[in-house]
Amino acid sequence: MQLGFAMLCAGSVRAKNTMNIMLTNVLDAAASGLSYYLFGYAFSFKSPSNGFIGRHFFGLREFPSSQADYSFFLYQWAFAIAVAGITSSSIAERTQFVAYLIYSSFLTGFVYPVVSHWFWSGDGWASAVKSDNNLLFGSGAIDFAGSGVVHMVGGIARLWGALIEGPRIGRFDRSGQSVVLRGHSASLVVLGSFLLWFGWYGFNPSSFLTILKSYGDSGGYYGQ
């Protein structure tokens, strides 16, 4: 899916910014993965913890060695970098490279993990499976596939990024009239769309908990 985001975004910008977009998405996945590995997963899951944030498994220390646990970590990492991918196109062509990596690392290492802890951890204040009474009249919120935890968080981060960065250079002329800045490659846009489409088949169906179970060393069932 990260490749799909990269292709879609690269095709939607002007040709001179293509290499920057490609490199940003590659290093974005690496920086986000490292951030989620060191801090994000620890902030997200494992009981006991408080209702706001988790506090176990920093750097996966003392992490269970079962295949199902590592599959779950990999699955949650995919969610984290998807949040970062959602935001990338909103600030394309108008952000500094280092600034974006810091922004992305903070998003995947703290912001998204904290929100996912609220809803998906057994101790989160808004979790539907919280053992004691939570703040939502004892009912909790069910976010089955991440419409709020993933897409709303990514959308809000995307909105703030666009508001802070402002319009792209050349987006408006001297009179204030908007100027159409067309993407340079429809082929990359179509390719990215198909890659994302294919990626969703492994991304969303995995919300069924049965897919997160261990089905042998091959992991073939999880791969589908």
Automatic annotation (TrEMBL):
Keyword Membrane assigned: yes
Gene Ontology MF annotations: ammonium channel activity
Keywords tagged on the record: Ammonia transport, Membrane, Transmembrane, Transmembrane helix, Transport
UniProt cross-references to Pfam families, sorted A to Z: Ammonium_transp
GO cellular component terms, semicolon-separated: plasma membrane
One BP term from GO: ammonium homeostasis
Parts of the chain that traverse the membrane: 72-91, 98-120, 140-164, 185-203
Ammonium transporter AmtB-like domain ranges (all copies): 1-213
Keyword Transmembrane helix (UniProt): yes
Family under the similarity heading: Belongs to the ammonia transporter channel (TC 1.A.11.2) family.
Protein name: Ammonium transporter AmtB-like domain-containing protein
Species whose genome carries this gene: Populus tomentosa (Chinese white poplar)
